[in-house]
Amino acid sequence: xxxxxxxxxxxxxxxxxxxxxxxxxxxxxxxxxxxxxxxxxxxxxxxxxxxxxxxxxxxxxxxxxxxxxxxxxxxxxxxxxxxxxxxxxxxxxxxxxxxxxxxxxxxxxxxxxxxxxxxxxxxxxxxxxxxxxxxxxxxxxxxxxxxxxxxxxxxxxxxxxxxxxxxxxxxxxxxxxxxxxxxxxxxxxxxxxxxxxxxxxxxxxxxxxxxxxxxxxxxxxxxxxxxxxxxxxxxxxxxxxxxxxxxxxxxxxxxxxxxxxxxxxxxxxxxxxxxxxxxxxxxxxxxxxxxxxxxxxxxxxxxxxxxxxxxxxxxxxxxxxxxxxxxxxxxxxxxxxxxxxxxxxxxxxxxxxxxxxxxxxxxxx
Amino acid sequence: xxxxxxxxxxxxxxxxxxxxxxxxxxxxxxxxxxxxxxxxxxxxxxxxxxxxxxxxxxxxxxxxxxxxxxxxxxxxxxxxxxxxxxxxxxxxxxxxxxxxxxxxxxxxxxxxxxxxxxxxxxxxxxxxxxxxxxxxxxxxxxxxxxxxxxxxxxxxxxxxxxxxxxxxxxxxxxxxxxxxxxxxxxxxxxxxxxxxxxxxxxxxxxxxxxxxxxxxxxxxxxxxxxxxxxxxxxxxxxxxxxxxxxxxxxxxx
Lengths: 365, 253
Fold this sequence. Notes:
Chain A is built from 13 helices and 15 strands. Chain A has 365 residues and is of the alpha/beta class. In chain B, helix 1 (32-45) crosses helix 7 and helix 3 (102-108) packs across helix 4 (110-119).
């Protein structure tokens, strides 16, 4: 595993391979469709015999996210994965992780809701991922892969950003990305960090046993003095501002001369790239703006597009209209912003999106 | 006038080295202070101060991290043993313990507690059973005795209205992953000594990789019980101990 390897794999399987190769220290999870292959693959690969990575099946998602909280508290690189109903159970833990400023990686392979819903793909958890989910003023770093390759790439990117900002990161995938098979280039195996390296990197905050040469570390999100708690909140907001300034990632396809822009992420963006080709073949100047980071959201680039005269934006999502609110905030009334979506585990086809674009924006009187 | 001099060789008692000077928030007479002292002494005497990670709960002992000079992690309500599981799995050389009340370990955290025990995690849970929710102002706990008055059982706990109290220590004893379950108290000096021995035994078993240990301490909450500290100790002996009898429940040799 010293070299890059090209494989044909499911998105979920790639998450497991990427975690091991990145040098992840621990995975804690609970089975749920459509992402159970992540833990199944890890158990089959037995990384505890090679890299020393811990893999543990917990009794619930509540337990697995709190295992992540425990592992992250010691400075280790730990992760979990789940799907929508399981992420709801993790919401409490995500708030605590953000409050205690702990780095970790959480994968949500979304399925349709609400409630038990369906096991088919959906993007109905955009609000939950980007606007909170748990209580209090916090943000996760949210990455939206649109391919099996990005399932690989975002494991490393997610951990890197999580540790850079000491903040939980989420890969917001869906059942389509998790289940589909594609070519993927796997990274070479990296060594896990030694306890000494972790101590050097995380000694100002991590709890792994107090050596004689430092004060004790306490990992907590609790502060009963309101004036101190306000300062903690202000510090968190500064961090989120830095994320918004430095870490926005997006892909712009055919946007330079576009009169209309489709905004879509993840599997929707994959479908909408075909919509753009269909539109261009008809002579309609359509572009695709694909946010890669959903939080921080590419607000500035959308505002600039609206400023330079894009005639309309269509937010195409597998939900009832969630990201469209952020698109509207970015466009700020300078151009019409519409939403097109399917729900309940249904996907849209490229021509459906083109028809919606014509109906809601191009041909609208 | 003879000078009063305390010579080291004459000292029979001192503040444990690992107990910090922070003023405790516990009510005078509460058992927590005594149990904190025992835990600090055991960690120090075993030479584990640089290896120990404590996990504090939500409840009165949420601030346990202010009093013992080791690394701490403050867990969400009930989740301490899930947190401890990961710490121990990722740092098998460490001593990992949780310090939890009856609400934390045996109400909201029942699943996390039972499953950490069932998996046989090499950690210790210090379980303070005072039959009441102290931090939130004296509401019913899963361990509240029948007939006992609390803020949410103002006419006494009625099993038809409020359900029965239960003993998670006895439940856990049936699990194969468990090596040591004991129930102690700190309401007399003799019991304090026994409790310390039990904590030490549990810590030794965790470090030897023998499996999961639970040290239940039947404790007082004189504020919640609305009794003086002395009367609380007496009430504990007369009312708590008949339902929660002291002694080892499981000890795998």
